[in-house]
Amino acid sequence: MKTLLLAWLMMLPMSIGAVWLGHHEPDALLPVVAILLLGLGKAWLIVGRFMELGFVGFGQAPLLWRSLLLGWPLVVTGVILALHATP
Fold it and tell me: Residue 86 gets which letter from DSSP?
């Protein structure tokens, strides 16, 4: 239970930071990259702690599940960055 509380407390400033960055310069590339990286960090925490799949090398879940659930946010982030970076 203590690790879930710690994960939740880590996700709070990540969420607040992403919202804050989104309101200041939503069209600039650097804030978009920072927002996406914060989202990846939150996805990593959700998969590892809240879904209890564990982190790479430390969990009990099969590698395929962890790879799929952590790979999908990476793919989406890459697509968003590619679409945002093109003029």
Answer: -
